Amino acid sequence: MHTSSTLVLILAVFGASSVEMVEALTIVVAAGVSRSWRSALTGAATAVVVLALLVGIIGVPLIHYVPIDTLRIVVGALLLVLGLSWLRKAILRASGHKAPHDEDKIYAETVSELSAGSGSSPGAVTTSDSSASPTPTSTPASSKQRDGVAFAVAFKGVFLEGTEVVLIVVSLGASQGRLGVASLSAAAAALVVTAVGIAVSRQLSEVPENAIKTFVGIMLTSFGVFWVGEGAGVHWKGSDLAILVLIAFFALVTAGAVKGMRRLAPGKSL
Amino acid sequence: MTLLKRSLQAFGHFWWDFLIGDTPEFALATGIIVALAFLLRHHLLAASILLPLVTAIFLLASTYRGRLRAGPENADTEAQTPQTS
To answer: Which domain range does residue A94 map to?
Structure first.
């Protein structure tokens, strides 16, 4: 395995994890500010432990018991679905056809719901079924008390955002036999985002999320095409270096798509 | 409803959303690309050109379709569902 593909693996996992962790941080900070920091952080830490266990439970057997070509096709297919989906959203956002992900808005809504006590149902805050009726049964706790709502909201936020990270870590890590490296990259991203979040004591709305998402989407799509080909028996010219060619190709396609889509959105700008 | 049933439903719902969701064309694209890879495994040049090209065509077509669907009235939907990145 070439150093270049390992580097690309690290960057892809780090980027994907950073994006997801920024989104999770927004929810954790909102739960901490409005309810209880201790419970919010405990919830977030518990979710991280569960996610790490998932990586071990799913990833290790994959490496040891599934034939490598089968694994690469399945992994490649998953990466293609995920990467194309990220790229599509990123292009639509960059070209002004879709609103950017607004961490400030999510933060304000979450704090408002939790502070008022009317959003005590965790599902009302972090899931798409926001139509579920809230259950105003609990009240904000002091920072030293245990607060089930803060715990549940933080746990759910981190767990949901982290699930895609687990998929990416297991997919990329297992297919290259680099599960440890992929896991460490994800952990490093989580640590960096958490450290920055603590340092600034708020959600990270200034992170260029769409740019990172575009970058990661290009990488995931490139890896997806590469692994599907490898798994099916296509021997790419230049071996792993072909990944870099695929990355360059999809970067060009993405840039062209953003440019073209901007033309179709008169009056809109970034 | 038992915890097991709810868990299975949530698991199934997650995978449905992940693989199909609002972009079923990507599931179709993936199936086609896998089939194409098997068909062209002994034709390196054709595979090297067609696999990325077909992927790009599906991406562009889906994005164009997304432009038609994600009009200004739907622009805020994404920001209201934090778990969908």
So the answer is: 3-263
